[in-house]
Amino acid sequence: MSDIFENLKEAILDGDEDLVVEYVQQVIDEKIDPVAAIQNGLIKGIEELGARWKAGEAFLPDVMMGADALKTGLEMLDPIVAESGATGGEAKGKIVIGQVAGDIHDIGKNIVGALMTAAGYKVYDIGIDQPAESFLAKAEEVGAQIIAAGALLTTTMAAQKAIVDYLKTKNLREKYKVMIGGGPTSQAFANEIGADAWAETADEAVALCDKLVTK
Protein backbone atom coordinates (compact mmCIF):
# COMPACT_ATOMS: atom_id res chain seq x y z
CA MET A 1 0.00 0.00 0.00
CA SER A 2 2.90 2.34 0.67
CA ASP A 3 3.60 2.07 -3.08
CA ILE A 4 0.36 3.85 -3.96
CA PHE A 5 1.18 6.64 -1.48
CA GLU A 6 4.64 6.97 -2.97
CA ASN A 7 3.13 7.06 -6.47
CA LEU A 8 0.73 9.81 -5.44
CA LYS A 9 3.58 11.79 -3.92
CA GLU A 10 5.70 11.47 -7.05
CA ALA A 11 2.77 12.43 -9.29
CA ILE A 12 2.31 15.63 -7.26
CA LEU A 13 6.05 16.35 -7.45
CA ASP A 14 5.85 15.92 -11.22
CA GLY A 15 2.69 18.00 -11.44
CA ASP A 16 1.09 15.17 -13.40
CA GLU A 17 -2.65 15.61 -13.02
CA ASP A 18 -3.51 12.58 -15.18
CA LEU A 19 -1.40 10.28 -13.04
CA VAL A 20 -2.92 11.71 -9.86
CA VAL A 21 -6.39 10.92 -11.23
CA GLU A 22 -5.25 7.39 -12.10
CA TYR A 23 -3.74 6.71 -8.67
CA VAL A 24 -6.61 8.30 -6.75
CA GLN A 25 -9.04 6.14 -8.72
CA GLN A 26 -6.97 3.15 -7.62
CA VAL A 27 -7.31 4.31 -3.99
CA ILE A 28 -11.08 4.51 -4.46
CA ASP A 29 -11.40 1.18 -6.33
CA GLU A 30 -9.26 -0.74 -3.85
CA LYS A 31 -10.96 0.95 -0.88
CA ILE A 32 -7.66 2.22 0.49
CA ASP A 33 -8.00 4.65 3.43
CA PRO A 34 -8.64 8.02 1.74
CA VAL A 35 -7.33 10.03 4.70
CA ALA A 36 -4.05 8.11 4.59
CA ALA A 37 -3.85 8.70 0.83
CA ILE A 38 -4.28 12.45 1.41
CA GLN A 39 -1.79 12.66 4.27
CA ASN A 40 0.85 10.16 3.12
CA GLY A 41 0.57 10.76 -0.61
CA LEU A 42 -0.87 14.06 -1.79
CA ILE A 43 0.21 16.24 1.15
CA LYS A 44 3.69 14.68 1.35
CA GLY A 45 4.14 15.51 -2.33
CA ILE A 46 3.08 19.15 -2.08
CA GLU A 47 5.11 19.68 1.10
CA GLU A 48 8.24 18.31 -0.56
CA LEU A 49 7.54 20.43 -3.63
CA GLY A 50 7.22 23.48 -1.41
CA ALA A 51 10.54 22.66 0.25
CA ARG A 52 12.21 22.28 -3.15
CA TRP A 53 10.81 25.65 -4.22
CA LYS A 54 12.16 27.34 -1.10
CA ALA A 55 15.54 25.72 -1.72
CA GLY A 56 15.56 26.96 -5.32
CA GLU A 57 15.34 23.42 -6.70
CA ALA A 58 11.85 23.90 -8.19
CA PHE A 59 10.25 26.84 -9.97
CA LEU A 60 6.88 28.52 -9.55
CA PRO A 61 5.32 26.77 -12.58
CA ASP A 62 6.31 23.43 -11.01
CA VAL A 63 4.59 24.42 -7.77
CA MET A 64 1.48 25.63 -9.60
CA MET A 65 1.21 22.37 -11.55
CA GLY A 66 1.67 20.39 -8.35
CA ALA A 67 -1.02 22.49 -6.65
CA ASP A 68 -3.45 21.90 -9.52
CA ALA A 69 -2.78 18.16 -9.36
CA LEU A 70 -3.29 18.27 -5.58
CA LYS A 71 -6.60 20.08 -5.99
CA THR A 72 -7.82 17.48 -8.49
CA GLY A 73 -6.88 14.63 -6.15
CA LEU A 74 -8.58 16.26 -3.19
CA GLU A 75 -11.75 16.93 -5.15
CA MET A 76 -11.93 13.21 -5.93
CA LEU A 77 -11.20 12.05 -2.37
CA ASP A 78 -13.13 14.60 -0.28
CA PRO A 79 -16.57 13.04 -0.95
CA ILE A 80 -15.18 9.59 -0.11
CA VAL A 81 -13.75 10.90 3.16
CA ALA A 82 -17.10 12.47 4.06
CA GLU A 83 -19.14 9.45 2.99
CA SER A 84 -16.99 6.79 4.61
CA GLY A 85 -17.00 8.52 7.96
CA ALA A 86 -13.22 8.22 7.81
CA THR A 87 -13.26 11.44 9.74
CA GLY A 88 -14.81 9.58 12.66
CA GLY A 89 -18.49 9.97 11.89
CA GLU A 90 -19.69 13.37 13.01
CA ALA A 91 -17.36 16.17 11.93
CA LYS A 92 -15.38 17.81 14.72
CA GLY A 93 -16.54 21.18 13.52
CA LYS A 94 -17.19 23.31 10.46
CA ILE A 95 -14.63 25.65 8.97
CA VAL A 96 -14.97 28.23 6.22
CA ILE A 97 -11.62 28.78 4.53
CA GLY A 98 -10.56 31.13 1.77
CA GLN A 99 -8.06 33.67 0.50
CA VAL A 100 -8.96 37.26 1.27
CA ALA A 101 -9.93 39.93 -1.24
CA GLY A 102 -7.10 40.70 -3.66
CA ASP A 103 -5.24 37.45 -2.96
CA ILE A 104 -5.19 34.76 -5.65
CA HIS A 105 -2.61 32.37 -4.16
CA ASP A 106 -4.28 29.15 -3.11
CA ILE A 107 -1.54 26.55 -2.63
CA GLY A 108 -1.24 27.10 1.11
CA LYS A 109 -5.00 27.30 1.52
CA ASN A 110 -5.46 24.00 -0.32
CA ILE A 111 -2.91 22.26 1.90
CA VAL A 112 -4.47 23.64 5.09
CA GLY A 113 -7.96 22.69 3.91
CA ALA A 114 -6.80 19.18 3.03
CA LEU A 115 -5.23 18.64 6.45
CA MET A 116 -8.30 20.04 8.22
CA THR A 117 -10.50 17.65 6.23
CA ALA A 118 -8.19 14.75 7.03
CA ALA A 119 -8.28 15.74 10.72
CA GLY A 120 -12.05 15.36 10.82
CA TYR A 121 -13.42 18.83 10.06
CA LYS A 122 -16.02 19.72 7.48
CA VAL A 123 -14.26 22.32 5.38
CA TYR A 124 -16.02 24.78 3.10
CA ASP A 125 -13.50 26.32 0.72
CA ILE A 126 -14.83 29.55 -0.80
CA GLY A 127 -11.77 30.01 -3.00
CA ILE A 128 -9.57 33.01 -3.71
CA ASP A 129 -10.06 36.78 -3.73
CA GLN A 130 -13.03 36.72 -1.34
CA PRO A 131 -14.39 39.76 0.52
CA ALA A 132 -15.40 39.66 4.19
CA GLU A 133 -19.06 39.39 3.19
CA SER A 134 -18.43 36.06 1.44
CA PHE A 135 -16.69 34.54 4.48
CA LEU A 136 -19.58 35.51 6.75
CA ALA A 137 -22.32 34.51 4.30
CA LYS A 138 -20.86 31.00 3.97
CA ALA A 139 -20.28 30.69 7.72
CA GLU A 140 -23.89 31.65 8.40
CA GLU A 141 -25.16 29.30 5.69
CA VAL A 142 -23.35 26.20 6.96
CA GLY A 143 -23.21 26.95 10.68
CA ALA A 144 -19.44 27.13 10.89
CA GLN A 145 -17.50 27.76 14.09
CA ILE A 146 -14.25 28.92 12.49
CA ILE A 147 -13.42 31.35 9.71
CA ALA A 148 -9.90 30.78 8.33
CA ALA A 149 -8.54 33.55 6.12
CA GLY A 150 -5.24 33.43 4.26
CA ALA A 151 -3.16 36.28 2.87
CA LEU A 152 0.11 35.74 1.01
CA LEU A 153 0.77 39.37 0.14
CA THR A 154 1.52 42.24 2.50
CA THR A 155 -0.95 44.28 0.46
CA THR A 156 -3.82 41.90 1.25
CA MET A 157 -3.24 41.56 5.00
CA ALA A 158 -5.60 44.48 5.59
CA ALA A 159 -8.40 42.32 4.18
CA GLN A 160 -7.90 39.93 7.11
CA LYS A 161 -8.54 42.82 9.49
CA ALA A 162 -11.58 43.71 7.37
CA ILE A 163 -13.12 40.32 8.19
CA VAL A 164 -12.75 40.89 11.94
CA ASP A 165 -14.13 44.42 11.61
CA TYR A 166 -17.03 43.25 9.45
CA LEU A 167 -18.05 40.65 12.03
CA LYS A 168 -18.06 43.41 14.65
CA THR A 169 -20.32 45.65 12.56
CA LYS A 170 -22.77 42.76 12.25
CA ASN A 171 -22.56 42.06 16.02
CA LEU A 172 -21.34 38.56 15.20
CA ARG A 173 -17.75 38.78 16.41
CA GLU A 174 -18.38 36.49 19.39
CA LYS A 175 -20.09 33.88 17.24
CA TYR A 176 -17.01 32.95 15.17
CA LYS A 177 -13.38 32.16 15.83
CA VAL A 178 -11.20 33.89 13.25
CA MET A 179 -7.93 32.24 12.26
CA ILE A 180 -5.44 33.91 9.93
CA GLY A 181 -2.32 32.69 8.17
CA GLY A 182 -0.02 33.30 5.23
CA GLY A 183 3.59 34.25 4.57
CA PRO A 184 3.66 37.88 5.74
CA THR A 185 1.34 37.39 8.74
CA SER A 186 2.44 36.87 12.34
CA GLN A 187 1.13 36.38 15.86
CA ALA A 188 1.77 40.07 16.49
CA PHE A 189 -0.41 41.00 13.50
CA ALA A 190 -3.14 38.60 14.64
CA ASN A 191 -3.11 40.26 18.05
CA GLU A 192 -3.18 43.70 16.46
CA ILE A 193 -6.29 43.01 14.36
CA GLY A 194 -8.07 41.00 17.05
CA ALA A 195 -8.00 37.58 15.38
CA ASP A 196 -8.41 34.53 17.61
CA ALA A 197 -5.53 32.52 16.21
CA TRP A 198 -2.57 32.59 13.85
CA ALA A 199 -0.90 29.57 12.31
CA GLU A 200 2.47 29.47 10.60
CA THR A 201 2.09 25.95 9.19
CA ALA A 202 -0.79 23.71 8.08
CA ASP A 203 -0.13 21.33 11.01
CA GLU A 204 -0.34 24.23 13.46
CA ALA A 205 -3.61 25.35 11.87
CA VAL A 206 -5.19 21.95 12.56
CA ALA A 207 -3.94 21.90 16.17
CA LEU A 208 -5.33 25.40 16.70
CA CYS A 209 -8.71 24.35 15.30
CA ASP A 210 -8.83 21.60 17.90
CA LYS A 211 -8.25 24.19 20.64
CA LEU A 212 -10.70 26.73 19.22
CA VAL A 213 -13.53 24.24 18.80
CA THR A 214 -13.22 22.83 22.33
CA LYS A 215 -13.20 26.28 23.92
TrEMBL record:
Residues 1-89 form the B12-binding N-terminal domain. One of its GO terms (molecular function) is methionine synthase activity. SUPFAM superfamilies: Cobalamin (vitamin B12)-binding domain (SSF52242), Methionine synthase domain (SSF47644). Its EC number is 2.1.1.13. The keyword Lyase does not apply. Residues 92-215 form the B12-binding domain. GO terms for biological process: methylation. It holds the Pfam family B12-binding_2. Keywords: Cobalt, Metal-binding, Methyltransferase, Transferase. The keyword Transferase applies. Gene3D superfamilies: Cobalamin-binding domain (3.40.50.280), Methionine synthase domain (1.10.1240.10). PROSITE patterns: B12_BINDING (PS51332), B12_BINDING_NTER (PS51337). PANTHER family: METHIONINE SYNTHASE. This is Methionine synthase. It comes from Sporomusa silvacetica DSM 10669. The lineage of its organism: Bacteria, Bacillati, Bacillota, Negativicutes, Selenomonadales.
